[in-house]
Amino acid sequence: MVARDIELGAQLARGRDDGEYNTTLTPKLKAKLRDSGVGRFGFAVAAGATYGFAANDATSLFAYVPATVRLSNIARVNLNLGYLRDRAGGENHGTYGAAFDLRTPDNLWTLTGEVFGQAVKPAAAGENQPRYQLGVRYRPVDPFNIDLIYGRNLFGEGRDWLTVSVTMRFR
Length: 171
Description:
The protein is an all-beta fold and 171 residues long. The protein has strands at 5-17, 20-34, 41-52, 57-70, 75-86, 91-103, 109-119, 131-141, 144-152, 160-168. The chain has a ten-stranded antiparallel β-sheet with strand order 1-2-3-4-5-6-7-8-9-10, with no helix packed on it. A hairpin with a 6-residue loop joins strand 2 (20-34) and strand 3. The protein is globular.
């Protein structure tokens, strides 16, 4: 068997760019190839698509390879490299990200910081600059968590955002 763990997820988002609102649905499939451990990198492969309801079409396709190394039982570093096909703009982009997670020993709270971006060529001024986000996760029971994230958007207006996310895991 190539992959031991398969994860299927989806994100439903509503956002604004230049004053216009759009809702998107992004399903994703991820397969773990190797478990991470303290001092040992773990790897996976993931792919998905984004459906834009305003365009009534799949607006982007993506694939990436995430890697995680645990520094201890409460700290880890996440890295990823990927590819994004912007179907609306007819462009291809390389994507990247680096993050840290620091959690309490009981896994009730997690602090996460992330820097991410995409290589756009040619790019408008500032478009290739990395973006960031910082968040806190509250996980009162294993299959459920709530995240509060502050960040800077990747496209468009260059504005800050505040996101509330709720996750429910089914096993």
